């Protein structure tokens, strides 16, 4: 499988917020993450910041 | 391996711009893509729009 873990960057910290993410889509004023298990999470005013796919990592950040 | 293909969304079209992408990082006023083969591409004024990792797809879009 080719899913990745999503981390939220806050200053110098990287906080794991969802494992095994399949899709990330813009929705309204934020982004919706869906895992391969069907788990969903909406993050208002956040965007996809960077990717490191061989390491299975997605980095998200608050807007602005 | 867990790389994905990067597509640029332009209106209704999805244009393949790089295969086997490993990392995408913000750099200056745009994003830099690096493939697992070491190939690099810089896209000025673009951002990561959406992901569909099980399908090995990254979607990019022009800013604004």
From TrEMBL, chains A, B:
InterPro entries: CooT. It holds the Pfam family CooT. This is RNA-binding domain-containing protein. It comes from Desulfonema magnum.
